[in-house]
């Protein structure tokens, strides 16, 4: 590996090496430092330069492939795509390999859903309210059964976006699917029965507050409720990260 190749990896020596490696390579591709058609260093060379495992290297390369930034050829290695500039933004499972990445997604959601909740409160129709009520009931049932309720949670939040009467909001969420609700990090399996019950009650309380504000047409309250819910979710993830050192 050349000195230039080594320079590609000087920014990834951080706790979250998996996403750091993918982000570094992505930045090099998008900046043009790694040019269309250029061959990437071998897995072994990347491992030697970074000190990460082969598994992490392969997961980082899989992320780049999923985004259309690189292509691989059997026996030849990985190459920067001839047209590496992504035409659409996406979040894929490999992007959420750490709590820090989950927190970044929550920041994105807060920006989108804060505005959407306000618009939904102003524009919701009786059909929208009924749809949100149904989705909320399904989420309640999933939580009562002790599950994560990721799909039901996603469906409820999507129903808010639909109620904006602006299809771009719901289409944005459809791009990501229920990965926007990364409940796998909630660690319900590590909770006691009492903790799971308290967690479910808290989730129900926060979601019902959002629904009530939108149903009642209270724009300011809807914005406050969604911001409070996502802020509290972020705080819970930060607490988990700090307690378990899962960055």
From TrEMBL:
<dbReference type="InterPro" id="IPR036390">
    <property type="entry name" value="WH_DNA-bd_sf"/>
</dbReference>
<dbReference type="Pfam" id="PF07729">
    <property type="entry name" value="FCD"/>
</dbReference>
<dbReference type="GO" id="GO:0003700">
    <property type="term" value="F:DNA-binding transcription factor activity"/>
</dbReference>
<keyword id="KW-0805">Transcription regulation</keyword>
<keyword id="KW-0804">Transcription</keyword>
<protein>
    <submittedName>
        <fullName>GntR family transcriptional regulator</fullName>
    </submittedName>
</protein>
<dbReference type="InterPro" id="IPR036388">
    <property type="entry name" value="WH-like_DNA-bd_sf"/>
</dbReference>
<dbReference type="InterPro" id="IPR011711">
    <property type="entry name" value="GntR_C"/>
</dbReference>
<feature type="domain" description="HTH gntR-type">
    <location>
        <begin position="15"/>
        <end position="83"/>
    </location>
</feature>
<dbReference type="InterPro" id="IPR000524">
    <property type="entry name" value="Tscrpt_reg_HTH_GntR"/>
</dbReference>
<keyword id="KW-0238">DNA-binding</keyword>
<dbReference type="InterPro" id="IPR008920">
    <property type="entry name" value="TF_FadR/GntR_C"/>
</dbReference>
<dbReference type="Pfam" id="PF00392">
    <property type="entry name" value="GntR"/>
</dbReference>
<dbReference type="GO" id="GO:0003677">
    <property type="term" value="F:DNA binding"/>
</dbReference>
């Amino acid at each position: 590996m050349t000195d230039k190749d080594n320079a590609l990896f000087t920014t990834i020596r951080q706790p979250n090496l998996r996403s750091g490696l993918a982000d570094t390579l992505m930045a090099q591709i998008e900046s043009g430092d790694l040019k269309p058609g250029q061959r990437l260093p071998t897995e072994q060379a990347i491992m030697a330069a970074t000190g990460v495992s082969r598994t992490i290297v392969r997961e980082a390369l899989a992320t780049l492939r999923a985004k259309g930034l690189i292509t691989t050829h059997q026996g030849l290695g990985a190459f920067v795509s001839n047209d590496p500039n992504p035409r659409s933004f996406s979040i894929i499972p490999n992007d959420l390999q750490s709590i820090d990445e989950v927190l970044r997604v929550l920041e994105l959601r807060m920006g989108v859903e804060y505005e959407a909740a306000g618009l939904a409160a102003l524009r919701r129709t009786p059909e929208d309210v009924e749809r949100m009520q149904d989705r909320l009931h399904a989420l309640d049932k999933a939580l009562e059964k002790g599950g994560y309720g990721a799909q039901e949670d996603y469906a409820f939040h999507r129903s808010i976006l639909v109620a904006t009467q602006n299809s771009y909001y719901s289409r944005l969420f459809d791009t990501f699917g229920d990965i926007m609700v990364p409940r796998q990090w909630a660690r319900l399996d590590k909770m006691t029965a009492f903790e799971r019950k308290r967690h479910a009650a808290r989730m129900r309380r926060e979601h019902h507050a959002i629904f009530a504000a939108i149903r009642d047409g209270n724009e300011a309250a809807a914005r406050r409720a969604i911001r409070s819910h996502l802020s509290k979710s972020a705080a819970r993830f930060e607490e988990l990260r700090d307690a378990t050192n899962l960055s």
